[in-house]
Amino acid sequence: MSPQILISTLLSALLAGSLIAPAQASDSDRNEGGLSAPPATAETLYRQGVLQYQKGDLEAAIALYTQALTLDPDAVTIYSARAGALGQLEEYEAAISDYSTAIALDETLAAAYGGRGLARSLKGEINAGVQDLWIAAQLFREQDKIDQYFETLSIIEGIAP
């Protein structure tokens, strides 16, 4: 397995464990009368994006995440999810931008530091990438997310100079 495929696989695991909330219908998602669909909300668009991401349709996922962000421009989880999809498409600069926005909104979001670190390293910015991954590892440890802590250390070991 190539290092890039391994890193992408590990990134998906990190993001899945940290960002993607289970898609459960809320009261606002239910159609009470059955006559017309409720207006789209950022949450429903995000959930639809997650489903498209899980199906492997990254472009559709990104489009849905983008629509969701127009409704809720402060949705840190949606920025992180879109960044992950952008990274999978090797659009590293855009992924780094979205991860940076997510970090600005929530400095404790370990997966965003991890994702940005991976994107930076894949873009060739190894030292900056490793620095972000170390921050992610420390945050995972502080948050008692031990599996993700060790996964992040494994990623660092694979890319550190």
Descriptive account of the structure:
The protein has about 160 residues and is mostly helical. It has a single domain, classed as Tetratricopeptide repeat domain (Serine Threonine Protein Phosphatase 5, Tetratricopeptide repeat). The protein contains 8 helices and no strands. The longest helix has 17 residues, at about 125-140. It is globular and about 50 Å long. The two termini are about 20 Å apart. The model is unreliable at about 1-5 and about 15-35 (pLDDT under 50).
In short:
This protein has 161 residues and is an all-alpha fold. Helices cover 71% and strands 0% of the residues.
Give the helix/strand layout.
Blueprint: H1 3-18, H2 42-55, H3 58-71, H4 76-88, H5 92-105, H6 110-122, H7 126-142, H8 146-159
Detail the poorly predicted runs. Answer: 1-7, 16-34
CATH top level label: Mainly Alpha
Put simply, the count of helices is 8
Largest β sheet strand count, sense and barrel closure: none
Within CATH, the superfamily carries the name: Tetratricopeptide repeat domain
The helix/strand class is mainly alpha
CATH T-level topology: Serine Threonine Protein Phosphatase 5, Tetratricopeptide repeat
- For the secondary structure, the number of strands is 0
Shape: globular
- From the alpha carbons, calculate the radius of gyration and give it in angstroms: 16 Å
Counting structural domains, the number is: 1
Fraction in helix:
over 70%
What order do the helices and strands follow? HHHHHHHH
State the separation between the terminal residues, measured CA to CA: 20 Å
Residue share in β-strands: under 5%
Average of the residue pLDDT scores = 84
CATH architecture: Alpha Horseshoe
